[in-house]
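To whoever is covering the structure queue this week,

Two jobs came back overnight. Logging them here so there's a record in the thread.

Job A:
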Amino acid sequence: MVAISHAVLFGMVASFSALVSADNCKPRLFYCGTTLLRKGNYYDQIEGALKASGQSTNDAHIHNGLFYCTGGPNGEITFQAFCGNGCVDGGNGKSDHC
């Protein structure tokens, strides 16, 4: 019985840690798709922003798309440009760019 409660407790702590580690984008900064994916669970938002702008949702557009963070409770984003030659991570607290 003790082993079961330890397993349940460990599972709950691991789940909570995963939720805490996700981070929203900072408003008024530009982000590469790859940067957003590292930051948190942005796949669906990236795909939605690409579709709303009539862009392809292939891997190249997801990873090399440039998005603007408008903020909000979920770190909302809008598509800005596709970086055909690759998207560059500008560093912590700075905008990414093509």
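Job B:
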Amino acid sequence: MTGSSDKAGLPLSGRTVLVTGANGGLGQEFVAQAIELGAKKVYAAARTPRAWADTRVQPLHLDITSAESVVRAVAEAPDVDLLINNAAIAPSSDSISGPEDELRRIFETNFFGSLRMANAFSPILAGNGGGTMLNILSSAAWVSMPTAYAASKAAFWSATNALRFELEGQGTQVVGLLVGMIDTPMAANHDVPKNSPASVVAQAYEGITAGALEVLADDLTRDLKSNLNTRAEEFYPWIHAQLRAFLQP
């Protein structure tokens, strides 16, 4: 991470950021770039917090699947004005027809846990001028991938749009970040083209600064969005062909 004594004019100058899943590949990048862009403080939240070299990064113990843990996080981070809902899981054995307990475990983190964070921190954001909520979604929310991960991200995409209406009155900017595969440990088992975490995070922060409601962070996602109004009888054969090409480059 780099820093400077003069942060005037930087996109996140003076802001206080909370990143969930901060120990992961994308989470670490959100923390690092927030500091580079002038954040005053970054809460790096994880189940097992790690040490950070920069004193502006404050480790925070957080398990988003635990209501009690989220309540403690709210008490420990009352100055947050930018919440980054990044924590998620994607088990390698994930299947939409898999054991119900496993499907519930995925939804408990990717949907209920992230929504729990959104609802718990909404009053904090309101009290700090409205602030911003960035929800990390996935282009998998828009395609017919047979996984609980995709279904959970589709649910959270819908919830993100609902939160935007819900929080409009308090002046909170709610942003959805959609992207395909990212080169992080979560995607290590997938031998497919991947986006760099640095590029994805940079586009996310640029979108926040520009007042965007949605950030599409790669060409695949932008192409997919442009085809969502296609009739189902045409869309599904098209998306299946796209998936086959993507998974077998």
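Note for Job B: The chain has one domain: 16-219.

Please reply-all if you pick these up so we don't duplicate work.
Q.
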